[in-house]
Design goal:
- The complex is a heterodimer of chains A (170) and B (557).
- Chain A is α+β, with helices and mostly antiparallel strands and 170 residues long.
- Chain A contains four helices and nine strands; from the N terminus they run E-H-E-E-H-E-E-H-E-E-H-E-E.
- The longest helix of chain A is centred in the C-terminal third of the chain and has 15 residues.
- In chain A, 24% of the residues are buried.
- By secondary structure, chain B is an alpha/beta fold.
- Chain B folds into three domains: 176 residues, 3-Layer(aba) Sandwich (Rossmann fold), CATH 3.40.50; 165 residues, 3-Layer(aba) Sandwich (Rossmann fold), CATH 3.40.50.1220; 172 residues, Thiamin diphosphate (ThDP)-binding fold, Pyr/PP domains (Rossmann fold, 3-Layer(aba) Sandwich), CATH 3.40.50.
- In chain B, the strands form three sheets. A six-stranded parallel sheet of chain B has the order 2-1-3-4-6-5, sandwiched between helices.
- In chain B, helix 1 packs across helix 2, helix 1 runs parallel beside helix 7 and helix 3 crosses helix 18.
- Chain B is globular, with a radius of gyration of 24 Å.
- Classes of the chains: A alpha+beta (170), B alpha/beta (557).
């Protein structure tokens, strides 16, 4: 059963034991409940025994509460937090391959400046751009550049960190 | 002999109080089976790994202890899957040990290699693959702790062969590693006060007793609550037997195959206190129309069970025993109410309307079997019509005396579960009730029963059909019968005899008493084949997609 609703993007951050197989346990909870994972980022924390999974899913309003409870049941899950709110800083890194058509050159350069992104490498007719931003910035960037001829994109998905010094020491 | 991984396993099994395991050896389990020789752990050799898992499940349900099963890698492990899933759905504490190919061969599609951790991911509470013999003791201790803590369930430990034969020091004595904090809960006094207040003020309260009451051993507290608050109760299939039938208070089983009185009163009540139940679709039928007038309070140890399918006004996460201990002093002692009088007049009206148990001659037959057996009898029911006949007619007089696969609905469960129950509680008589369909699914376990001479009474209710599916086709598919006939050519008495088990055949509409007497008199195992009419269905029944009060009494409804 795939959830039809595309109400809201929910980002949650999950601290897990840094062990083989943990990701499939976490992913299984989403799949079994019919939620699609939109983006996913996993990395070690300051404690090498603990990894942080940052995960974005599109879902109905009950989602966070239900999924949090299910994830909390997993033995390898240490903590689950909803990071969609204001108390977290969210960022995403995006790489874009852009075809540069004749006559569009100066418009593209202006847009690059406007969005504050960086040209990683370029040939006369093909740029690779790099942008870091909040999810709504990367979305706006992508929408804007679409008209220039985006050949390829790759994005990390959101990562998030608490705005203030965290209570928990892991 | 030098200590090896297999010795650690035996050591931890003993430490956990395990004296019985159910299993089947293979090349990769041999280090363990070898070290079992001189141990105090008895290994029952089943005739199929699925039956080993069901036997461990039946053992756990009958005793309240953790059931343990063991199978080899590959097909041995995959054969456990149905049994593990059955235990998972009914929250049975179980540890499943599976052998695995050596760590050096993992991922190479070695002989009898399978990713059993991956396969059982959604049907285990947790699972471990041991990669270092020095972690073996701690892993096993944690597996046992997890299996029985919080909402119990199956935990699988996958054991590569080289780990089993690695030399190592004996495990040091120490407690299981601490489990994560959210498996323990703090008392929420305020919420309990709210529940008590709502119950005290309600005019038409009902208690729903689920399987959690058994799992938390809260029988006496629930009984105390019923008597103090004068609150009538219904049970889910898993809750049957938790409280013996206190006259006037037990309204029966709720749900799609439940009693009319239970379903009807739940529909009319103004307050539900649900204890240890997850409001499964079998209990609620059409969820939107379930108990439309009621405020609902739910006590459960598993936070994910709260409000999973239905909106809960007063949730409480915690152990039932702790919760009820704190709740009881807050409950007003009541006198018999108008509500109880109303229930009594409905009960009288229904008794007048439905002549029998709704289970026909098959139900009468099961009553006769129970009357002929000792009071201290455990019954295992399979799945299908025989399950409903049994749970509706067998008067469970103690909490662990009726064992059946409620959540998973696993055909073939009752025979191996009876083996586990008999071995776990040898002082009790054990009856395995099954239909002909379910009997075929683990018929090989007759050999186990015969080999160990387990005095299990096997009742095969034979209608030559997959009876429940036949009833559904009859009622809801315009009697277009298909793929449900099993036929009458097989002579189950001769089959039993072939396995070394005596038996006889009766027809429930002739003189079943003679056969029942022969079965009860037999010292060892006995098979009684009871022939019933394939149109001996179960009524009332809730049609698919209907609410709990839209009951059908026959096919003309």
């Amino acid at each position: 059963m795939l959830k039809k609703a595309r109400e809201q993007e929910q980002t949650i951050s999950i601290l897990v034991n840094n062990q083989p197989g943990v990701l499939s346990r976490v992913g299984g909870v989403f799949g079994r409940h019919g939620y699609n994972i939109k983006s996913l980022c996993v990395a070690e924390t300051t404690n090498r025994d603990v990894s942080r999974i940052t995960l974005t899913s599109e879902s109905d309003p009950d989602f966070t509460e239900k999924i949090k409870k299910q994830l909390d049941k997993l033995v390898d899950v240490i903590e689950v937090s909803d990071v969609s709110g204001q108390s977290y800083i969210q960022r995403e890194l995006m790489l874009i391959g852009l075809t540069v058509k004749e006559g569009a050159y100066s418009d593209i350069l202006r847009a690059i400046e406007l969005f504050g992104c960086r040209i990683v490498t370029m040939t006369p007719d093909y740029f690779i751009l790099e942008l870091t931003g909040q999810p709504d910035e990367t979305a706006a960037f992508l929408k804007f550049f679409q008209s220039f001829g985006v050949e390829e994109i790759n994005r990390t998905g959101s990562i998030a960190i608490e705005r203030t010094k965290p209570q928990r020491r892991i | 002999m030098e200590t090896i991984g297999a010795d650690i396993i035996i050591q931890i099994l003993r430490e956990e109080g395990v004296d019985v395991i159910f299993g089947y050896p293979g090349a990769n389990t041999l280090p363990i089976h070898d070290r079992l020789i001189n141990s105090e752990v008895r290994h029952y050799l089943m005739r199929h790994e699925q039956a080993a898992a069901h036997a461990a499940d039946g053992y756990a349900r009958a005793t309240g202890k953790v059931g343990v099963c063991i199978a080899t890698s590959g097909p041995g492990a995959t054969n456990l899957v149905t049994g593990i899933a059955t235990a998972f759905m009914d929250s049975t504490p179980m540890v499943a040990l599976t052998a695995q190919v050596s760590t050096s061969l993992l991922g190479q599609d070695a002989f009898q290699e399978t990713d059993i951790i991956g396969i059982t991911l959604p049907i285990t509470k947790h699972s471990y693959q041991v990669h270092d013999v020095n972690n073996l003791a701690a892993t096993l201790r944690q597996a046992f702790e997890l299996a029985k803590t919080g909402r119990p369930g199956p935990v699988l430990v996958d054991l590569p062969r080289d780990i089993l034969s690695s030399k190592c020091p004996a495990a040091e004595e120490k407690a299981a590693p601490a489990l994560k904090a959210n498996y323990k809960t703090e008392e929420d006094r305020e919420q309990l006060e709210m529940i008590a207040k709502t119950l005290n003020q309600s005019e038409r309260p009902i208690l729903i007793i689920g399987g959690g009451v058994k799992l938390s051993n809260a029988f006496l507290l629930v009984r105390e609550l019923i008597e103090k608050a004068k609150i009538p109760f219904v049970t889910t299939m898993m809750g049957i037997g938790s409280v013996d039938s206190i006259n006037g208070y037990n309204l029966g089983l709720i749900g799609t195959h439940g009693n009319e009185l239970a379903n009807s009163m739940v529909h009319q009540c103004d307050f539900i206190l649900a204890i240890g139940t997850r409001f499964s679709d079998r209990s609620t039928a059409l969820i939107e129309e379930f108990a439309p007038l009621a405020k609902i309070a739910q006590i459960d140890i598993d936070p994910t069970s709260i409000g999973k399918s239905i909106k809960i006004n007063l949730p409480y996460v915690g152990d039932i025993r702790d919760a009820l201990t704190a709740l009881l002093p807050l409950i007003d002692a009541k006198e018999k109410s108008e509500w109880l009088q109303r229930i009594q007049s409905e009960r009288d009206a229904i008794t007048g309307k439905v002549a029998d148990t709704g289970c026909g001659l098959a139900g009468d037959f099961i009553r006769m079997v129970q009357e002929a057996m000792p009071v201290e009898t455990t019954v295992t029911a399979d799945v299908g019509l025989n399950q409903i006949w049994t749970v509706r007619t067998w008067q469970a007089r103690s909490p662990r005396s009726l064992i059946t696969s409620g959540g998973m609905g696993t055909m073939g469960f009752s025979l191996p579960a009876a083996i586990g129950a008999k071995i776990g509680t040898p002082e009790r008589a054990v009856v395995a009730i099954t239909g002909d369909g379910g009997f075929y699914m683990n018929i090989q376990e007759l050999a186990t029963i015969s080999y160990y001479n387990l005095p299990i009474k096997i009742v095969v209710i034979n209608n030559g059909h997959l009876g429940m599916i036949r009833q559904i086709q009859d009622l809801f598919y315009n009697a277009r019968f298909n793929t449900i006939e099993l036929g009458s050519k097989v002579d189950f008495v001769a089959v039993a005899r072939g396995f070394g088990i005596p038996g006889s055949r009766i027809a429930v509409d002739k003189d079943p008493q003679a056969g029942i007497e022969a079965m009860v008199k037999a010292d060892g195992p006995y098979l009684l084949e009871a022939v019933v009419d394939p149109e001996n269905y179960v009524y009332p029944i809730i049609p698919p997609g209907c609410s709990n009060i839209e009951m059908m009494y026959d096919r003309l409804d």
